[in-house]
Amino acid sequence: MTAASGKTKILRVAINGFGRIGRALFRICLQDPAIEIVAIDDCYLTLKEIAYLCKYDSIYGVLQQSVELIENQLFVSGKPIEILQVGDLTNLPFADGLDIDVLVDASGDTSNLDAKLEFLKHCPFRTAFTNYPANRRSQTYIYGTQERSALIIGKIVFLGTCDANAVLPIYKQLATAYTIKSASIVTLHPYLSNQNLLDGKSPSRDLELGRASQNNLIPKTTSLEDIMREYFPNSKDRIAAMSFRVPTNAVANANLHLVFEEAVSKQLLQSTLAEWCDTIWAGIGLYSQERCVSIDHLASPYSFIIDHHWIDTAGSQARISLWYDTEWGYSSRVYDFLKDVAKLT
After folding, report:
1. pLDDT of res. 3
2. Which of 84, 114, 289, 316 satisfies CB 3.0 to 4.6 Å to 41 for a cystine?
């Protein structure tokens, strides 16, 4: 509340990068009158494409609010949003003319990161990056692994990846309750827009990722392994992870194979995980006893949904299976960050 008027302060937000995460976050924020998206920057899309993709989405459906493009402004339900096509954070006008409280960088671009961070350090607003560059552990916040009070430290925060937000809270809490001798994790991740419809050039060092995305299970390395080893340095030699890109367009699955120092019963593990979802993971984790497949968790706001039916143990070994909407679930944590920042302003 503002002291002078007694009215709720509106958090003014700009989004840099209007891809899958930027657009999901945009839709989530539209549901909250206490958050106002005042600017969108994307140098890869035309103005018409930004307006079109704002309205129509092949996964999450048609936006119910009216969308109109007038010159370089997007009007959603009559409210204006400035559209920019700059791209480079250091050239955005937010430090000068456009008044914002938070900049969300959803571009995924980590090039020239040091220069960007130096520029942002002197800006009068907070910045959240929707990624996890190497060696940024001290500036990273992943919900479910740290106290929320940690968010007040510094003006710049990295919010990790969808995989990290799904897996790290579970691993951290289990490592607190039990001694984990080793962990092997396999994620099944929907294909992304930088993949090919037909065999061609790979977008990464994994040559397999250049193969046709629609009819292959494609093995690849995953940043989840690097993040976990950086987050848990004492266990880095006992953590392994890999991923498969699968021919679906939404909702991922992660299978955790853990070896504990002592035997753990299936029933105890199930009840413990269910209790944690109701307490320490409330709002970010769900324990589900429903018989579901991936599409049933579309647009779920949770970082992870633990599947009761696919938890199992064999002596000191345990398997835990969890679902997560890689876009909506992760964007919901970015939205949580915005709400937490609003409490500080």
Report:
1. 40
2. 84
pLDDT digits (tens, 9 = 90+) for 89-121: 888 776 556 789 999 999 998 888 999 999 998
Q: How many domains does the chain have?
A: 2
Task: Please tell me the distance from the alpha carbon of residue 267 to that of residue 20, in angstroms, as a whole number.
Answer: 38
Contact 314, 308 (CB under 8 A): no
Which residue matches tokens 């915005």? 338
Q: Which two tokens stand for residue 160?
A: 């990790």
pTM of the model: 0.95
> What does the alpha-carbon distance between residue 32 and residue 331 come to, in Å, rounded to a whole number?
14
Residues facing 306 on adjacent strands = 287, 322
Q: Look at 134 and 45; give whichever has higher pLDDT.
A: 45
Q: What confidence tier does 152 reach under pLDDT thresholds 50, 70, 90?
A: low
Domain membership of residue 143 (yes or no) is no
Query: Which residues neighbour 126 within 8 Å (Cβ) at sequence distance 6 or greater?
Result: 101, 102, 103, 155, 156, 157, 341
CA distance 51 to 48: 5
Q: DSSP state, 9?
A: P
Instruction: Provide DSSP, 195-237.
Output: SBSSS---SSS-GGGGSBSSS--EEE--HHHHHHHHH-GGGGG
84 is in which domain, residue-wise?
Answer: 11-130
What CATH number did the domain enclosing 285 receive? 3.30.360.10
- Predicted local distance difference test score (pLDDT) of residue 286: 98
